């Protein structure tokens, strides 16, 4: 039985551990929360995030990252993007040099504007062919309920991508593989920012036309940045692009959309942070994404307005006005 460590016991980490368990892996979840470890160990549930969902018997939990990592052939990272570097520095001596690192994280690092695969490679000295990314329209609650879904597994090495694909294939979770790590990670990170913008539109009472316009132009922003960084433009037409974007922008299960919706309905950014139970990746990632875009001469007007609202005190109504004040141009214009 393949040994897998899942580092992180949040909503998505737990759901993916369940998938791996159903696919036949021996899975150990690391959690810093004693209550969660006890629930998973004794009840086979994580009632904090997925009450009533039973985890398979081959999924266990521990408070010790070293114990979780012992003998692990695959290491799944399921934590907020801004703590990845510090955690990897702490754990690097316990991670086997041959282990494949799988990132579930959809964010960009503050200060470096690095994608998570780049952070992993830099800290662990891991070759790109041993780092995989899983990204797609994967709302954790629906997966925990075993609703059919598909995802993208990206790795620079095709053989590794296919190994990870096989590792997490079940009758309700269908992975497709690609070698386009850049496009997969940019899609997963930028869609969160667009989802916040769409949530603001929902909170302000704007209808389907406004939301469809934001989503579509957000897809254009995502593709522009990805292509500038070397991604395959076709990636953004797939699960890691438009698929993830639509799910995150439209579902009330999306924490990023909900974050934006609260702000659009009149709460301040701080009030929204205070009532947000899970990590909103867009809140911290939007600034390094915008910095990355500017460094490569890419215009991202929606992202820029989200940064202005979340970090510079602008009103969501100003965001909507700025979006409509943009110069008109050909729709296919990539500038």
Describe this structure in words.
The protein has 335 residues and is of the alpha/beta class. It folds into two domains: 3-179, Rossmann fold (3-Layer(aba) Sandwich); 188-324, N-(1-d-carboxylethyl)-l-norvaline Dehydrogenase, domain 2 (Orthogonal Bundle), CATH 1.10.1040. It is 50% helix and 12% strand. It has helices spanning 11-22, 34-43, 65-69, 84-91, 116-124, 140-144, 158-167, 181-203, 208-228, 239-250, 255-264, 269-275, 281-295, 301-311, 316-324, and strands spanning 3-7, 26-30, 59-62, 74-77, 100-103, 131-135, 149-155, 173-178. The protein has an eight-stranded mixed beta sheet with strand order 3-2-1-4-5-6-7-8, sandwiched between helices. α1 links the parallel β1 (3-7) and β2. The relative contact order is 0.11.
Keywords:
335 residues, alpha/beta, Rossmann fold, 8 strands
Number of domains: 2
> Residue share in helices?
40-55%
Secondary-structure content class: alpha/beta
Fourth-level CATH superfamily of the largest domain: NAD(P)-binding Rossmann-like Domain
- Distance from N terminus to C terminus (CA atoms, Å) equals 50 Å
Say how many strands there are.
8
Given as residue ranges, the uncertain stretches (5+ residues, pLDDT < 50) are: none
Mean pLDDT: 95
CATH C-level of the largest domain: Alpha Beta
Backbone shape? globular
Measured by DSSP, the beta-strand proportion falls in 5-15%
The neighbouring-strand order within the major sheet is 3-2-1-4-5-6-7-8
The CATH topology of the largest domain corresponds to: Rossmann fold
Radius of gyration using CA atoms only: 19 Å
| CATH architecture grouping of the largest domain | 3-Layer(aba) Sandwich
Sheet with the most strands? 8 strands, mixed
């Amino acid at each position: 039985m393949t040994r897998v460590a899942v580092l992180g016991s949040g909503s998505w980490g737990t759901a993916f551990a369940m998938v791996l368990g159903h696919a036949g892996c021996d899975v150990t979840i690391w959690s810093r929360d004693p209550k969660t470890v006890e629930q998973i160990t004794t009840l086979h549930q994580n009632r904090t995030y997925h009450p009533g969902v039973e985890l398979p018997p081959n999924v266990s939990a521990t408070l010790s990252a070293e114990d979780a990592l012992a003998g692990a052939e695959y290491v799944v990272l399921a934590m907020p993007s801004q703590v990845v570097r510090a955690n990897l520095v702490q754990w690097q001596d316990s991670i086997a040099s041959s282990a494949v690192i799988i990132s579930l994280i959809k964010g960009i690092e503050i200060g470096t504007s690095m994608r998570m695969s780049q952070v992993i490679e830099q800290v662990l000295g891991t070759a790109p062919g041993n780092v995989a990314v899983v990204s797609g329209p994967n709302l954790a609650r629906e997966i925990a309920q075993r609703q059919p879904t598909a995802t993208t597994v990206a790795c620079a090495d095709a053989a590794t991508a296919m190994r990870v694909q096989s590792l997490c294939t079940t009758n309700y979770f269908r992975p497709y593989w690609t070698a386009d790590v850049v496009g997969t990670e940019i899609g997963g990170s930028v869609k969160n920012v667009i989802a916040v913008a769409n949530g603001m539109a929902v909170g302000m009472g704007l209808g389907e036309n406004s939301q469809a316009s934001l989503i579509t132009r957000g897809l254009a922003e995502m593709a522009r940045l990805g292509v500038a960084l070397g991604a395959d433009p076709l990636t953004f037409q797939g699960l890691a692009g438009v698929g993830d974007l639509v799910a995150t922008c439209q579902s009330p299960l999306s924490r990023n959309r909900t974050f934006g919706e609260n702000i659009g309905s009149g709460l301040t950014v701080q009030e929204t942070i205070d009532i947000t139970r899970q990590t909103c990746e867009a809140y911290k990632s939007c600034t390094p994404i915008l910095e990355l875009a500017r460094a490569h001469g890419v215009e991202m007007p929606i992202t820029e307005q989200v940064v202005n609202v979340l970090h510079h005190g602008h009103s969501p109504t100003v965001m909507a006005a700025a979006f409509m004040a943009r110069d008109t141009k050909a729709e296919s214009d990539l500038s």
